[in-house]
Amino acid sequence: MAPHRLRLAQLVAGITLSTALIPSSVLACACGCGVFDVGTSSLFAGGTGGTVFFEYDFMNQHEDWHGSSRAPKLANNYQKIRTNFMTLGGQYMFSRDWGVMGEVPVWQRHF
Fold it and tell me: For 35-71, how does the pLDDT look when each residue is reduced to its tens digit (9 = 90+)?
């Protein structure tokens, strides 16, 4: 076996062994690893009353893409786009089973 193939095989074996020895408690998960009880009653309103919320997000688009590959900067008239997303919302629960919710999304785009 060539030396570079032997090193590659050793590397793959080391990574495989290391991965197998990692305890499952340190592996990542998409739902927050028990922080949130997704799909259970803990996310539902527990009673009546109102809630108001505000959400803010920012997006900085400074790289040009077309599909899944980079595009030349000359093909884009807007070299940099910054966007502020703001959402104001409210929810009122009449009972544990019935409520209304509304959101007002607003965005500011700077070219």
Answer: 555 555 555 666 788 889 899 998 887 777 777 877 7
3-state secondary structure labels for all residues of the chain: CCHHHHHHHHHHHHHHHHHHHCCHHHCCCCCCCCCCCCCCHHHCCCCCEEEEEEEEEEEEECCCEECCEECCHHHCCCCCEEEEEEEEEEEEECCCCCEEEEEEEEEEEEC
Query: Rounded to two decimals, what is the model's pTM?
Result: 0.48
| pLDDT (0 to 100) of residue 29 | 58
Say which amino acid occupies 32.
G
Nearest-angstrom CA–CA distance, 25 and 33: 9
CA 108 – CA 111 distance, rounded (Å): 10
Which residue do the tokens 């991965």 mark? 19
